[in-house]
Structures are given as C-alpha cells and as structure tokens.
Amino acid sequence: MISTLVLVAALGGGLAACGPGDKADKAGGTSGGSASATSSAKPSADDGDSYDCGKPPVLPAGHTMIAIKLERDAASGFEAQKAQPKCGPNDWTYGGEGDSQHYKLASDAKIELALSDGPKHPKSVSKDDFDKHVDGCLRNDYNAVKQPFSCYGNIYEITQNAKGDIQTIQEIWHP
Questions:
Q1: CA dihedral 85, 98, 161, 148 (to 10 degrees)
Q2: What are phi and psi of 121, to 5 degrees?
Q3: How many Å apart are CA 140 and CA 160, to the nearest integer?
Q4: CA distance 113 to 172
Q5: Judging by beta carbons within 10 Å of its beta carbon (0-12, 13-18, 19+), is residue 156 exposed, middle or buried?
Q6: Would the CA dihedral through 150, 104, 23, 87 be positive or negative?
Q7: Prior bond to 43 cis, omega within 30?
Q8: How far apart are the first and last CA of the chain?
C-alpha cells in the first residue's frame, strides 16, 4: 500500500501530504491562522492498512483546500475539486473528491508557490508564473517546473472574495 501511495503522489494523482499548518508567514506564525494536526502516523494494530493520524486538520473559516485537475482557461480560471484530508502512512494528506468546479482568480489575487526547501517560505509569483507552474505540474512536465519550485500534487489552500473569485491561493508543500 505504501508503494502505491508513493507512486500516486509522484505522478500527481491528487494526494498531497501535509496540512494547512505546515506553512509559516513572515511573522513566524502560521499563515492564515491555519491549524495543524500532528501525529506519529503509525499503522494501527487492527489490520495493518489503517493509520492513526489523530484528529484531522481544521482549516480557518473562509479557507478551502482544492485539487486542481484541469488546466486553466483564457479567463484566468481552472477546474478543481474540493480536497479533503485523508489519513495515510505520511500523516494527513489531501485528495480531490466530488465534481470539479470552475474557479477564477481575482485580478488582484495573491499567489504563492511552495519552494523546494520546505513549507516555511512560500514565494509570491505572478499569474503568468502560476499558469506555467500549474500547466507543467498537471502535465507531469518536470522540465517546465524549474527550481526553486517543484510539483506537490496540485493541492492549494484558497480564500475567495465576495464574488467567489480566488483572492489568495497557496500551494501546499509536502516532502
């Protein structure tokens, strides 16, 4: 089972480890007041396929996790599923569930991508750089995604404005 999850994660199959509390803002706290769930992620004694991750992570009010599934369109949008936490061998992971919805970036959206060195210092990027990153990751084209970035399963934490457009979007890093 572990090798299957590793393969799925490596191929961008919609699982991304780490919770919303794994990123820190510039003041040293958690970005957006996100909570995290910590645990040993040890297999339970009952069947060997179950894991004890503790309580699932809880996002702050107004925050949503999404799994981008289809490339964005010319109107600054893309298709994504809401991502739900699942307990696995690497603690809590997120995976898209249900029908895809269309999401659009606000004209003044704050966009941050995870750096390859970990979740502590996401980097603000332009919409064009975000588009290139998402396109490369969705195609599993790791030549298109250059350091200091990498692909982490296309999982993002978002907030939306009153019109429903994405106001903030931050890629979720995982090892």
A1: 60
A2: -135, 70
A3: 27
A4: 8
A5: buried
A6: negative
A7: no
A8: 18
The partner residues of 166 in beta bridges, in order of sequence, read 105, 160
Which of the given ranges, 6-15, 95-104, 141-150, has the highest pLDDT on average? 95-104
pLDDT digits (tens, 9 = 90+) for 119-166: 788 999 999 899 899 999 999 998 889 889 999 899 999 999 999 999
- Which residues, other chains included, contact 145 with Cβ-Cβ below 8 Å and sequence gap of 6+? 133, 136, 137, 151
Residue indicated by tokens 């981008």: 68
Cα radius of gyration (the chain): 16
The answer to whether 42 and 104 have CB atoms below 8 angstroms apart is no
Closest CA to 172 of 52, 101, 90, 99: 90
Under a CB-based contact definition with an 8 Å cutoff, are residues 162 and 37 in contact?
no
